[in-house]
Give the backbone structure.
Amino acid sequence: MKPTRWHLLRHAPAAVEKGTVYGRTDVPAIPQDPALLKRIATQLPPDSLLVTTPLRRTAETADMLEATGWAPRNRIVEAAFAEQDFGTWEGTTHDTLGHQGSADYAAFWDNPARNRPPNGESFADLMARASAAFAILTNTHPAQDIVLIGHGGSIRAIVATILGMTPENALALEISPLSLCLADHAGTEEATGALSPWRLRGLNISAGF
């Protein structure tokens, strides 16, 4: 049986001040060089299912790639793949938060994988929702090519799920803007014993390829 093939692409760099916390803040993507976009598009399968998130930087990245001639079969929006919600810290720089001397901010770094910002969510929360949606889409689109244009956090969560990593260990994974991760699912009927049905074929492949 043909595997279900996931192509996990982080969106183009966001138009924000360096060091800004912008998880759920809906900032635009910076327009990219058409030649670079064309190189990326050649690595993505045509006639695939395209998945973006409700945040505009993923949809705008998809639009840039489609403008090169890449033609996915269908596009859907999946909210479970949105970036981590940093609550009241959204739109503030890390430097500002550090200088304010907030006890919440200082305590967060004791365990950044599981601690929640005020009115926000932890990376472990993100990992739980993203992995659930990932499993559902894998099961409902067997033997298909799926392209997710997502975020550093959601792609990190998916890769960690494939590799069976804890949220703490997952934060060691680097997922750069416009980098690509590749994963194949063999199908439940192909999995035997303790073997995982997943194969990670590529991690954080740079946009230059």
Remarks:
- The chain has a mean pLDDT of 94.
